[in-house]
Design brief:
This protein is mostly helical. Helices cover 62% and strands 0% of the residues. The chain has one domain. The radius of gyration is 15 Å and the shape is globular.
Length: 188
């Protein structure tokens, strides 16, 4: 049976905005919402696209107010709202390796979130440097060049991106290309 969202889109967005005020964090959440929807449809989970999107929207629910407890605090906040275990697990698993987070991504959705979370930040950093300021004309070659430049978008962990690609059984080129396509779909 397909997984469905725990909250309406409006409820999930209100919950996100209750704990996040900065435009950067809100934009990141909206980007991951769209990226996760894209991948659900692309990977054969179209009947769960709303659920995947909600996971993307809420994945950093706790980050702005509780950065030292990221993903640990999210579990608590989502449980208090009676979120289902699948939603909680997916949100928490994207922080695999953080202090207090031992929940390894297992489902393909969790692996996609883990792999694309950091990567979307790197791709946006590349896009805003372009004259267009958009991902619409961004190519793999440009992102790969910046990916190899470790001091560019240094906060975007290449180690996590590479581990996410490995979890999915994809090479870095495929992960970057697919994520660019997902972000283009969101930007339209």
């Amino acid at each position: 049976m397909p997984r469905t969202p725990d909250f309406t889109r409006d409820e999930a967005l209100a919950l996100l905005k209750e704990y996040n005020k900065e435009d950067f964090h809100l934009r990141h959440a909206l980007t991951l919402e769209g990226v996760m929807r894209y991948f659900a449809e692309k990977l054969g989970y179209a009947d769960e696209a709303d659920f995947w999107a909600q996971v993307g929207l809420l994945h950093d629910l706790d980050f702005e107010l509780y950065p030292e407890e990221h993903c640990v605090k999210a579990r608590e906040l989502l449980k208090a709202r009676n979120a289902c275990d699948d939603l909680i697990r997916a949100v928490v698993s994207h922080g695999y390796g953080l202090p207090g987070v031992d929940c390894k991504p297992e489902h393909e959705m969790e692996k996609v979130l883990f792999a694309t979370d950091e990567l979307t930040g790197l791709i946006w950093a590349c896009a805003i440097m372009r004259p267009s300021g958009s991902v619409m004309d961004l190519e793999l070659k440009s992102v790969k060049k910046k990916y190899k430049t470790l001091n560019f978008a240094a906060g975007c962990s290449r180690k996590i991106i590479a581990l996410g690609a490995e979890m999915l059984g994809w090479d870095i080129d495929r992960l970057i290309s697919e994520t660019i396509s997902a972000m283009r779909a969101c930007e339209q």
